[in-house]
Amino acid sequence: MRIESRLAQIGSKSDPNTGAVSFPIYQATAFRHPKLGQSTGFDYARTKSPTRSVLEEAFAELESGDAAFAYSSGMAALHNILMLFSQGDHLLVSLDLYGGTYRLLEQVMSRFGITADYVDTNDIAAMDALLKINTKGLLIETPTNPLMMVTDVEKVCGWARENDILSIVDNTLLTPFFQRPLELGADIVIHSATKYLGGHNDVLAGLIAVKGKELSEKVSFLHNSIGAVLGPQDSWLLMRGMKTLALRMERHQFNATRLAEHLQQHPLIAEVFYPALPSHPEHAVQNRQTSGNTGIFSFKVKDARMIEPILRHIQLIAFAESLGGVESLMTYPAVQTHADIPLEIRNRIGVDDRLLRFSVGIEHIDDLIADLDHALAQANEEVMSIV
């Protein structure tokens, strides 16, 4: 079946006892054993839970993985992955990076002797220059958040494999509906499932899918040992959200593309970052390795003084930190999502005081354009009145 059908049918045939189309929420933490030495397959909910298991099996299939694991948040999922590494190990990481990932690497994992260098993952020569004898992992965001840099996944994961390095790809912004990194050679794919997979700003979750039996067993051991697993209620909410992923991603993409094109022509906008635009430097790479584009993009205003009044005057669009939900949200990365990244690094990569990130929802495109144009006009009027 095509992915649209597989998404809509998540869990619908998984409860043969009742025939429930919506798989039930098994709230139990303990399960009876038929007799000594026998198990129903479920013993304790941290290790394995019926509702979570259906979600994990569906996600593994969607991402073409051999196993999948659900976590209490995207950061919990990333922490679990990083525990695959040991003291003294070195990682190469995407240059433009979510601030929470940078914080975890620099303020937490560094205390355990795990170090990282940040690099343009399209620059193989730069990666070669940073490669060390103790380099064990490569962590890629593509597209990156918030500057929408795109990595050639097949090429870079091939480089990692040649150097015996574990490749990890954050696929949060595209989802398996538009991109499947494991099919392009990645070892692990990770999602903040809070975002597009859940899709309704009402569930906090993380998901990873893994290729290979040995790696799957290692991740399974850590999943159970660390215990930051997703509860049954949230597992059910996530499955319910994923059933409409195809419809939502198509609408997110349509709205984001129209808005990005609109802003590209706007006299108050200096730059728009969105891989669907032909002007994007990795537009061809994006088209080759994906079947569509995300619903998030970033843009820079010409005058930093416009930022505050824009965020004050948007009405349909909410000034809020997350992304990937049906509601449109706008974020100021320099003081919100990327505040933990040092100023000199933010400025060097372009996350400066003129940058706004726009998670485009599924509202009517004309209403979104009208709201944004109104906020820009009001902001410009206020700035000009000061001058």
Describe the secondary-structure layout.
Elements: H1 3-8, H2 50-62, E1 67-71, H3 74-82, E2 90-94, H4 99-108, E3 115-119, H5 124-130, E4 135-141, H6 153-162, E5 166-170, H7 175-178, E6 188-192, E7 206-210, H8 213-226, H9 232-242, H10 245-264, E8 269-273, H11 283-289, E9 296-301, H12 307-313, E10 318-319, E11 329-331, H13 343-349, E12 355-359, H14 365-386
Parallel strand pairs: 2-3, 2-4, 4-5, 5-6, 10-11
Antiparallel strand pairs: 1-7, 6-7, 8-9, 9-12, 11-12
> Measured on Cα atoms, how large is the radius of gyration?
21 Å
Question: Structural class, please?
Answer: alpha/beta
Give the CA-CA distance, first to last residue: 60 Å
How much of the polypeptide forms β-strand, as a percent range?
A: 5-15%
Binned, the helix content reads: 25-40%
Largest sheet: 7 strands, mixed
Mean pLDDT over the residues: 95
Account of the 3D structure:
The protein is of the alpha/beta class and 387 residues long. The chain contains 14 helices and twelve strands. The strands form two sheets. The chain has a seven-stranded mixed β-sheet with strand order 1-7-6-5-4-2-3, sandwiched between helices. The chain has a five-stranded mixed β-sheet with strand order 8-9-12-11-10, with helices on one face. α7 links the parallel β5 and β6. The chain starts with a helix and ends with a helix. The relative contact order is 0.13. The model has no long low-confidence stretch (mean pLDDT 95).
